């Protein structure tokens, strides 16, 4: 296996679809997930499929990827897996945080806010720093993070996640600005509303979100995880070497089509 990708949050949704697509593209897959119960069963199915596609060049860690101790423990293992070769991609696709309003019956508290911003935002920076120090990022490496329209449109219960994603976008811009001179690029991919397990955790009205999205999206459908995976696949090609510090929209024009 000549090139490897690292996916943080690679068991369901966008991360799982990306793992499968990049496996088909010929990359070895290293991924993290943190699943229990029913989600663990789904993760097992994803891992089995990716393992089959890659002929065993697949390594999944079921642990908290946002923990600094996890990074310190597993990065030497990642280096061993790749034979010390730099990663082609580090994708941040962790969807875990507090979804609640700032005011009302259960306003977000500091602990919840700090956790959400760390897991869904700041942890991308710490992973990138540690991978760079370990020489696992080099010319041609991509740093990608998944963002959403909720960063500039207010939504019920989305406040803490919105703050985390805005922080992530700023972190990605700065990473690209600082590491671009070494041929390492960093970008955000903005997906449209996607019917995934993560969406059901944001709001009880997720089905109404989906139906409303189909009406306002110029292509009259919602985004799929496979749409996002295909976009990421394109961004790994040499032709995308000069795309840096940007937000790439993968939503069929949804974000340009009126109010949510």
Explain this structure:
This protein is an alpha/beta fold. It has one domain (4-194, 225-252): NAD(P)-binding Rossmann-like Domain (Rossmann fold, 3-Layer(aba) Sandwich). Helix content is 45%, strand content 15%. Strand 1 (4-8), helix 1 (13-24) and strand 2 (28-33) form a beta-alpha-beta unit. Helix 1 runs parallel beside helix 2 and helix 1 (13-24) packs across helix 8. The longest helix has 24 residues, at 110-133. It starts with a strand and ends in a 10-residue tail after the last strand.
Give a concise summary.
It is built from 8 helices and 7 strands; from the N terminus they run βαβαβαβαβαβαααβ. The chain is of the alpha/beta class and 260 residues long.
SSE map:
Blueprint: E1 4-8, H1 13-24, E2 28-33, H2 37-53, E3 58-62, H3 68-82, E4 89-92, H4 110-133, E5 142-148, H5 159-179, E6 185-191, H6 197-202, H7 206-216, H8 225-235, E7 246-250
Parallel strand pairs: 1-2, 1-4, 2-3, 4-5, 5-6, 6-7
Helix pairs in contact: 1-2, 1-8, 3-4, 4-5
Number of distinct helices: 8
**N-to-C SSE string, H for helix and E for strand:** EHEHEHEHEHEHHHE
Give the CATH class.
Alpha Beta
Write down the overall mean pLDDT: 92
Helix content: 40-55%
Tell me how many strands there are: 7
The number of domains is 1
Largest sheet: 7 strands, parallel
Q: What distance lies between the first and last C-alpha atoms, to the nearest angstrom?
A: 44 Å
The CATH topology assignment is Rossmann fold
Specify the CATH architecture. Answer: 3-Layer(aba) Sandwich
As a whole number of angstroms, the C-alpha radius of gyration is 18 Å
Helix- and strand-based class?
alpha/beta
Main-sheet strand order equals 3-2-1-4-5-6-7
Quaternary state of this entry equals: single chain
Spell out the CATH superfamily: NAD(P)-binding Rossmann-like Domain
The geometry reads as: globular
Q: Percent of residues in beta strands? A: 15-25%
Regions with little confidence, pLDDT below 50 for 5+ residues: none
């Amino acid at each position: 296996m000549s090139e490897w990708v690292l996916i943080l949050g690679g068991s369901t949704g966008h991360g799982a679809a990306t793992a499968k697509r990049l496996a088909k593209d010929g990359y070895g897959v290293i991924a993290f997930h943190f699943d229990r119960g029913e989600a663990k069963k789904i993760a097992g199915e994803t891992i089995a499929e990716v393992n089959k596609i890659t002929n065993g060049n697949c390594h999944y860690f079921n642990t908290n990827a946002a923990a600094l101790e996890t990074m310190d423990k597993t990065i030497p293992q990642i280096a061993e897996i790749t034979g010390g070769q730099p990663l082609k991609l580090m994708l941040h696709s962790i969807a875990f945080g507090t979804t609640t309003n700032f005011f009302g019956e259960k306003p977000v508290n500091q602990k919840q806010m700090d956790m959400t911003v760390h897991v869904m935002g700041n942890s991308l920076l710490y992973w990138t720093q540690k991978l760079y120090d370990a020489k696992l990022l080099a010319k041609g490496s991509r740093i990608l993070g998944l963002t959403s329209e909720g960063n500039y449109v207010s939504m019920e219960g989305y406040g803490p996640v919105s703050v985390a994603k805005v922080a992530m976008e700023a972190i990605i811009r700065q990473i690209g600005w600082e590491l671009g001179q070494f041929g390492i690029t960093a970008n955000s991919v903005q997906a449209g509303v996607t019917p995934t397990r993560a969406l059901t955790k944001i709001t009880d009205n997720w089905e109404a979100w989906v139906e409303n999205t189909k009406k306002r999206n110029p292509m009259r459908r919602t985004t799929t995880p496979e749409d996002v995976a295909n976009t990421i696949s394109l961004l790994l090609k040499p032709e995308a070497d000069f795309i840096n510090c940007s937000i790439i929209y993968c939503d069929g024009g949804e974000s340009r089509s009126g109010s949510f």
